[in-house]
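Lab notebook page, bench 4
Experiment: in silico fold of construct C2
Operator: M.H.
Input chain length: 93 residues
Purpose: comparison with the prior construct
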Amino acid sequence: MSETTQSTFANSFQIAWDYLEATGELGDPDRAAHHLLDTIEAMIRQGERRPLLLSNKAIASYQRFRTESGLNIETCPTSGLVPREGTDHWFHR
């Protein structure tokens, strides 16, 4: 990978990771990292270089993966709040 491609890869991963962590959707860090890295790498191999598109597609792919795998996060039915993983804090999506 060229320096620019490596930078795009790293930036896209960090954007996706930060979003999933902030929303409490990260789940298992190893599983999340592998899924995000694989998704971003596949898109870069297909020629995509826009970091926000790469990160948004990786986020959506990981969310679908978690839903299809039964790893979805819980949501409070009355308030719509979701738990922040690893804490006792709840927040709006």
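Observations: Helices lie at 3-23, 29-45, 51-68. The chain is about 60% helix and 5% strand.
Next step: discuss at group meeting.
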